[in-house]
Amino acid sequence: MAMQVIVGHLVAIIIIFLLFSSKGTAASIAKPGCRETCGNVRIVYPFGIGRGCYHDRNFEVSCDYSSNPPRPSLVVIETEVLQTSLDNVRIIDWTNPSCHINYTKGEKLGSFSIEPYSYSHAENKFIGIGCDIGAYIGQLNITNSSPTRYVGGCVSVCHIPGGQLWSNRTSCSGISCCQTTFSNDLSNIDLWVINIGIRSTSNPCNIGIIAEKNFSNFDQFDTTLSGENKTYFYPAILNWAIGNKSCQEARKRSDYACGSNSRCVDSDKGSGYKCRCSRGYHGNPYLRDGCIDIDECIDSNNTLCKKGAACINTDGGFYCACPPGYHSYDSKPEQYGCVRDKVKLKAAILVTSGIGITVVLLILLAVGFWLHRQLEERKKNKLKHKFFKRNGGLLLQQQITSSSKGSVEKTKLFAIEELEKATDNFNASRVLGKGGHGTVYKGMLLDGSIVAIKKSIIVDERQVVEFVNEVFILSQINHRHIVKLLGCCLESEVPLLVYEYVSNSTLSHHLHDKNRESKLSWEKRLRIADEISGALAYLHSYASPAILHRDIKSSNILLDEHFRAVVSDFGLSRSITHEKTHLTTLVQGTFGYLDPEYFRSGQFTDKSDVYAFGVVLAELLTGEKVICSSRSEESLVTHFRLAMKQNCLFEILDKVILDEGQKEEILGVARLAKICLKLGGKKRPTMKEIAADLDRLRRTVEQKSLQRTCQDNCSVSVRSYSHASTSAVTEEYVLEDEDFPKLYRMTT
């Protein structure tokens, strides 16, 4: 008989081992992707924190992170939560004493509703505290004018000189305090108290509360209950249900809450329903796959199967099986057990021995595989930690600690596995562009959002500082024309930055790509210049501290599907207080866009960004590259200045500009570019002034375009206004001298 028991268990072990990988072993409590705790409180679904994490608004939980530890609250009844479960919710309730000298005819302590929840009559008790009083709890009918139906009450007597309710607050037995049960769950409550004493008491204050059954913390109540402004707190148990429909009605609705392997149970309240896991399952029945199979055979001492029969677990149940060489009467081993066959005994022993050896080998293989996985995981985690330190994780933490703002802390840290999946392991087909600092890939995150992921080419100390600096700078910026940083990854071999995806390539691509004709109209170019200047003006004048970009160029200006300009690549950017005039650094940037004054002195100022912006304006006007060996002057800046000086600007302009732009408009932008490119930084305007001028010029151009479009339909007054405006502009160009001692101003 001992042998048949061993054989039976071996068979069970083999089957369980083969099924182990496909069976869940732990039941979830919250919706996938949602927080399971707030502070020390577990949040069990259908309760949830955050949109999409609760079944409906009745189960929404807010988490107050300002307290330590964080404290959850039920939003619908604005009550702090101590515990949530599939049966009820434990809350912190509160009350204030009611103190009135004359209440011989009865005094209402309060009427209130906690719908859709209800106080559990099985888990709570009613407590009245006061001298010579009768305290009553009633069920208030709020749907009609029916009177309150009382469901419980008790009497508290005392007469202690000095106004004290009690001298010993360790119990509640009818002296100064009484307690009782009530007959049914209550959502709408009415509390009353009457004076039953012959003589008036020196302490008219009293309290009526509903608290959990084991509540005994009467020490918190003052011996005199003096003052109606003091608040007392105590735990209570609330029952809940899903909606207000019965199970039969709820099953027909799209918001039916019960998941698979569960059953519906009508609520005891008379409305709503609850879900329970089916027999043989346990877990959270409100989750889609929250009810998981109970392994009835896992207990080695179970008596489910008789006389050597092996217990075999199945989904939602189990069955008993006889091992090879044994059989059961009427094929019911769970009732009669197993007896040995008289034939083929030797073969059964051989089979049993083979099975035993196989089981041992499988166990050894499983243990070896598990150890290998553990070692690989440990090695992988060590490597991630090494990369984190090498990629500037400690430096970023130092920046966060020293920053007075909390914006950097909100930057999401992505796992390397998520970004590898988003880019198909950084497939070459996903490359959006390459630069001196790294490669940018197009990726799709798990939530379906499209992003741009910047991956450094190599890792050295200078690039790590630039990477951390770009994270720190972009985390403090919120501007529609500055690229938005979504997060970073520090646990990869090289640092990664995750940006919003801007879909229409770069300004450089649209201006200089030989394989395509530029689609940038004059109005679009003027709007792009206006948007870039507005972004730089924000960085210089409105960000605190101010931010110097240090690498403005057309390849760092992204365009979206509506040709909206977005400034990107903040790897060289630096913060500077408004009191400082410059930064002294190693000369870095892109040849052709470098401020000559910065190149000579090593001192970078906000006017150095102005110079680079002037180069971009020249690109927008001419459509030519900054450095080109086919020109007589390789530098676009020199080429542009010479054309302005020789009064032959219109010979070097892009054909699109000549076809669409008005002469005074083109001259306005060209002269603005000219003063941005002054060799002396002090002679250049600020980005704030440039942005204001471009905005005025753009609005005037758009107004003229609108007037031309509706010329045949517009009134005489509009035409007259347009003519007057144009005349004023032309007159101002005449007044401007060649060296531009002041900014071009558009009159309106």
From TrEMBL:
InterPro entries: EGF, EGF-like_Ca-bd_dom, EGF-type_Asp/Asn_hydroxyl_site, EGF_Ca-bd_CS, Kinase-like_dom_sf, NOTCH1_EGF-like, Prot_kinase_dom, Protein_kinase_ATP_BS. Residues 426-697 form the Protein kinase domain. It comes from the Eukaryota. It is a single-pass type I membrane protein. It is found in: Membrane. The chain crosses the membrane at residues 347-371. Serine/threonine-protein kinase that may function as a signaling receptor of extracellular matrix component. Binding to pectin may have significance in the control of cell expansion, morphogenesis and development. SUPFAM superfamilies: EGF/Laminin, Protein kinase-like (PK-like). Keywords: ATP-binding, Disulfide bond, EGF-like domain, Glycoprotein, Kinase, Membrane, Nucleotide-binding, Phosphoprotein, Repeat, Serine/threonine-protein kinase, Signal, Transferase, Transmembrane, Transmembrane helix. ATP binds at K455. It comes from Vitis rotundifolia. Pfam families: EGF_CA, GUB_WAK_bind, Pkinase. This is Uncharacterized protein. It catalyses: L-threonyl-[protein] + ATP = O-phospho-L-threonyl-[protein] + ADP + H(+); L-seryl-[protein] + ATP = O-phospho-L-seryl-[protein] + ADP + H(+). Its main location: membrane. Residues 1-26 form the signal peptide.
